[in-house]
Specification:
The protein has 113 residues and is mainly alpha-helical. The protein has one domain. 86% of the residues lie in helices and 0% in strands. It has 2 helices and no strands. Helix 1 (11-57) runs antiparallel to helix 2.
Length: 113
């Protein structure tokens, strides 16, 4: 499905296209936020694990430290789950806007077909 011409010739397509592209921009920003948060969480978990390994090798790890490990990163995972749920909602919104744009474009092609 490809229409010839420019969007400026079909003003009724401009708003759906603009909305669709805006949703892509929001999705990209959210993906970058997720990437940054994942990097932060990975660094925190890796740092704690490395500390624990070194302390364990020396026989100097407090038992409380091992006990607290899961709770120290479970909050991080809960936050990441929220970000992922938001991304899935954004994907659904993006698909809805794409359908709106596609329908308008298909109608244009039929009319000028």
């Amino acid at each position: 499905m490809t229409a010839t011409g420019r969007i400026s010739q079909f003003t009724h397509l401009k708003q759906p296209a603009s909305t669709y592209l805006s949703q892509i921009d929001i999705l990209v920003k959210n993906l970058y936020k997720l990437k940054d948060k994942l990097t932060e969480v990975l660094f925190n978990i890796e740092t704690k694990a490395c500390y624990c390994h070194n302390a364990l090798d020396k026989g100097d790890i407090p038992l409380a430290t091992l006990k607290e490990l899961p709770s120290s990163y479970s909050k991080e995972f809960f936050f990441l789950e929220g970000m992922i749920i938001e991304l899935l909602k954004r994907k659904k919104i993006l698909n809805e806007h794409y359908k709106t744009y596609s329908v308008a474009l298909a109608e244009l092609e039929v009319a000028h077909g």
